[in-house]
Amino acid sequence: MFKEALEYFAGIVEARDKPTLIEESPDGRTAYYSQRGERFEIARGAKVRDHFVHTLDDLIRFAKPYRKRGDAARVFHSRDAVVLILDDNDRRDRVTFSLDLSDALEILIRADSAPEFTQLEFIRTLRALDVNPATIAIFRRLDFKVVMAAEGEFQHGKDRMGKSIAAEVKGTAEIPEELMISVPVYSNRGERDPVEILCQIDLDAQRSAIHFRPKGDELDIAVETAQASIAARLVEAFDDTSVSYGSP
What we know:
The protein is of the alpha+beta class and 248 residues long. The protein folds into 3 domains: 2-43, no CATH class; 50-99 and 227-245; 103-216, no CATH class. 40% of the residues lie in helices and 25% in strands. The strands form 3 sheets. It has a 5-stranded mixed sheet, covered by helices on one side. Strands 1-2-3 form a 3-stranded antiparallel sheet, with no helix packed on it. A hairpin with a 2-residue loop joins strand 2 (30-35) and strand 3 (38-43). The longest helix is centred in the C-terminal third of the chain and has 20 residues, at 218-237. The chain is elongated, with a radius of gyration of 31 Å. The model is unreliable at 153-169 (pLDDT under 50).
């Protein structure tokens, strides 16, 4: 009981001795505290600023007056953003250019994990990816009922159907196993140059479905290609020692 009482009174003393924040100045550079009934102030300095721009050119222009002044600017670029630290030695004010993936690339990212497409879904996907209408027409002509019938005839050796004849009957003679899709990685102004992504196509006649997805590491390579373009422009504007692939 005695121990609890001591702890209680010690807590009261500690609370009384602890400074209490009263208010801050409008610019946030000064904080006013109260301790034991006395008022005092503490200088905080300027708050770190966090600016946002909408293009890479804007970010580069923002840095020019600071670089002329001799501040140690650093730039970091990654899949999601480009971040400029105006002075890495002292003030950590930053400027951020957020990178938004394009709708077309988002479609391919979803396709990478999609189990399958119906014929109509696949045609709509190709249209959304702005694929050549002549290529889309090939898949419009695809008839899965004919495909299954032809496969049955061919598999059982009926009617001595050869491979080339089976392909013509199935309507798959012109269907490619791979398709090169050209899409921009990002939707931001100034970052819409297209990159090529190789995709694979497989038909599932039993399920009347089409499997369509980017091959291997094509998605990662596409992002790396776009990042290389960003890095080249940053190095030209700054220097190779000030530009890093990563985050601050």
